[in-house]
Amino acid sequence: MNRLNTTDNLLDLTWDEYVIEVEDNYLIETGDDIDEGDYADIVHAYDRGMSPIGCVIALIEGQRRAGRPLAA
Questions:
Q1: Which of 11, 18, 35, 57 is deepest in the core (most CB within 10 A)?
Q2: Phi (first) and psi of residue 2, to 5 degrees
Q3: Is residue 20 part of a domain?
């Protein structure tokens, strides 16, 4: 079976590529840039092998739980 996005492809991302993917996906989802304080969470997600979009979803969900407003 051929798939465009597999776990193997996501694990092959360098740190820089991962951050770019997370920043791009976050911008698409919220229309805003990532806060400086969220980069610690991105490091943790990268070390755990989380996909970039999974990291973005976790960041957004964390903001909602903390009561921080998302970009308008």
A1: 18
A2: -100, 130
A3: yes
- Does the global pTM surpass 0.90? no
Tokens of 60: 């957004």
**Which domain covers residue 25, as residue numbers?**
15-66
C-alpha span between 31 and 47 (Å, rounded): 26
When divided into structural domains, the chain yields a total of 1
Contacts 24+ apart (CB under 8 A), 60-65: 60/26, 60/29, 60/30
What's the one-letter identity of residue 37? G
Which residues fall within 8 angstroms of residue 59, CB to CB, at 6 or more apart? 22, 26, 34, 38, 41, 42
Query: What confidence tens digit (pLDDT) does each residue in 28-67 have?
Result: 999 999 999 899 999 999 999 899 999 999 999 988 887 7
